[in-house]
Amino acid sequence: MSVSPPDPAGAAPAGTPASRKRRWLLIASILLNVFLIGAIGAGVAARHGPHFFDGARERPPRPFEMPSPRKIRAALPEEARPIADALFAAHREEMRAKIGTLVEARRAVAAAIRAEPFDRAGLDAALATLRSLEVEMAGTVQAIIADLAEDLDAESRDRLAKLLETRRGPDQPR
Questions:
Q1: Does residue 92 sit within a domain?
Q2: Cβ neighbours of residue 164 under 8 Å, at least 6 residues apart?
Q3: What's the predicted TM-score (pTM) here?
Q4: Is the peptide bond before 13 cis (omega within 30 degrees of 0)?
Q5: Does one domain contain both 48 and 74?
Q6: Which residue of 7, 80, 87, 101 sits 20 to 30 Å from the alpha carbon of 28, by its own alpha carbon?
């Protein structure tokens, strides 16, 4: 009868209660890891949308949405970026003030929706104010983009135009 040498890792012999416990712990650990990886993947998909996984670096613009100055700058060739930087710097304080006004208008809409008793006329007035501020903001942003395009060469304008195009995603009907 041969005696097997002791396991250097100190594992219990197969079939003992200690080895069964370790096996169940290993299975539970693997299942927990699979669950966590799935949860992380679902969280990423929920936050970034389906385009995050299809190789697209950024999601297509939403309808009526203008790209941020950071995205505009990144889309331009290196030599055109100082032009954009100077233009954005010239309008920075004006845009921050307008954004602050929009945030306050959205809070006013939310407060009107929550008001007890509900006041339809108050909500309509808050929405009208928000709408006019959004139109004003869009006009300002569009004027800045027009000023930028005026100062760019043809290649840079093409890159800017591609950034502004609304593209349909794979899940959107034509």
A1: yes
A2: 61, 66, 67, 145
A3: 0.57
A4: no
A5: no
A6: 7
